[in-house]
Design a protein that fits this description.
Helix 2 packs across helix 3 (26-39). With 62 residues, the protein is mainly α. The longest helix is centred in the middle third of the chain and has 14 residues, at 26-39. The chain contains 4 helices and no strands. The radius of gyration is 11 Å and the shape is globular. This is HTH luxR-type domain-containing protein.
Length: 62
């Protein structure tokens, strides 16, 4: 899942940077992100990150 890569790799990265690291196209990153946001009824990456922390999918580095 694209989101699984988010906590370790994507923090603050562009779609292009994520795509290069995962060896997929930038459009694939955009499509996965759009689908994830839609399924979770979220509007943007900030909400997605907040949701992920709330769900325990990612941990604070503090």
């Amino acid at each position: 899942m694209l989101w699984a890569s988010h906590d370790e790799r994507a923090g603050g990265r562009t779609n292009r940077e994520i795509a290069e690291e995962l060896f997929i196209s930038e459009n694939t990153v955009k499509n996965h992100l759009k689908n994830i946001l839609h399924k979770l009824h979220l509007e943007n990456r900030v909400q997605l990150t907040s949701y992920a922390y709330e769900q325990g999918w990612i941990q604070s580095k503090e």
